[in-house]
Amino acid sequence: MKNEIVARLENVTVKFADREILKNINLTVGKTDRICITGTSGKGKTTLMRVLTGFQQVTAGTVQTAPVRTAVVFQEDRLFMHRTALGNLKAVGIEKERAEKYLNAVGLGADMKKKPSQMSGGMKRRLALARALAYGGELYVFDEPLTGLDRETADRMLELIKKETEGKALVMITHDEFALRIPDVRIVKINADDEKSALI
Predict the structure, then answer these.
(1) CB count, 10 Å around CB of 165?
(2) 181: how many CB neighbours lie within 10 A of its CB?
(3) How far is residue 148 from each of residues 120, 135, 198, measured CA to CA in Å?
């Protein structure tokens, strides 16, 4: 079966003032592709994710995206601080029963009435992940969804991500140790300035 394209970047360059963050990036995402982006900090990984999701304009090049439902975990948790955990999911149109299912799935079933200010960093990260998974879609774009989690919790959340995104397009920034555990993954490394165009 043909792997239809959900996103394509061609010769994309992004500059902030005089600093070149991305240079001549080419990336194609098929509807069943699993892509993990790894590398050192400050080399454009998050900028690339923002381009994919339409939150970052490009300086040059073209970005083509299919009209598909996209679920996003941002680098920041981006939670509604005045809402409960359950309220954070309902705020993006997720029905109560489905919201409860995913809060339970990430281990926050007993914390549904808590607000983010009452949660640890790891709990807030799991809340952001639950919201994205419950929202669902054809494309999942996750920026370090496992950051701030202890190893055992990170392992459980990775298994959940693998299960929930099976057969869908997944583009995720993560560490090599997690990327290598995703079946049929394509790993993209961004490590040095001269590799920003060569490895994608």
Answers:
(1) 22
(2) 14
(3) 9, 22, 30
Q: What is the pLDDT of residues 108-162, one digit of tens each?
A: 999 999 999 999 999 999 999 999 999 999 999 999 999 999 999 999 999 999 9
Main-chain dihedrals φ then ψ at residue 179, nearest 5 degrees: -60, -40
Q: Is 181 left (phi over 0), alpha (psi -120 to 50) or beta?
A: alpha
Facing residues of 173 across strands? 37, 143
Q: What sign for the dihedral angle of Cα 47, 51, 52, 54?
A: positive
Tokens 């994919």 sit on residue: 52
CA 24 remoteness from chain centre: 22
HSE, side-chain direction, 13 A CA sphere, residue 135: 22
Backbone angles phi, psi at 113, to 5 degrees: -90, 0
What is the amino acid identity at position 118? Q
> The pTM is what?
0.89
Radius of gyration, CA atoms only, the chain: 17
For residue 8, give the 3-state DSSP assignment: strand
Amino acid occupying residue 126: R
Task: Write the burial class of residue 80 (CB in 10 Å: 0-12 exposed, 13-18 middle, 19+ buried).
Answer: middle
Tokens 């010769």 belong to residue? 11
Angle among Cα 156, 106, 51 to the nearest 5 degrees reads: 90
